[in-house]
Amino acid sequence: MSCIFFCGLCIKQIELENHLNIYINEEGWDNIIPEFNALCNVKYKYIQFKNKWDQLKEEYKLWRDLKRGSIGLG
After folding, report:
1. Which end of the chain is more exposed for a tag (fewer CB within 10 A), N or C?
2. What is the pLDDT of residues 13-42, one digit of tens each?
3. Among 58, 48, 46, 63, residue whose Cα is nearest residue 22
4. Per the domain annotation, does 73 fall within a domain?
């Protein structure tokens, strides 16, 4: 899954306020899924997008903690 396109589409939906706190709402997913599939010529389903969202969220948390110096290397 192309993270650049996926992240761009997610940001677009967040800017359109199609989210609930840290989750994209149903309307947001209804916009992201067909647009991404058409852009990348694939047939991913909702659960694959949701898994990618959750994975990226965990990676962001790790990056944020590392940037703050929580491991004592900075």
Report:
1. C
2. 999 998 888 788 999 999 999 999 999 999
3. 58
4. no
3: phi then psi, degrees, rounded to nearest 5: -65, -35
**Does the pTM of the predicted model rise above 0.85?**
no
End-to-end CA gap in the chain: 32
Name the residue among 34, 39, 31, 28 with its Cα closest to residue 4.
Answer: 39
59: left (phi over 0), alpha (psi -120 to 50) or beta: alpha
Report the domain count for the chain: 1
User: Domain span at residue 9?
Assistant: 3-68
How far apart are alpha carbons 63 and 50 in whole angstroms? 20
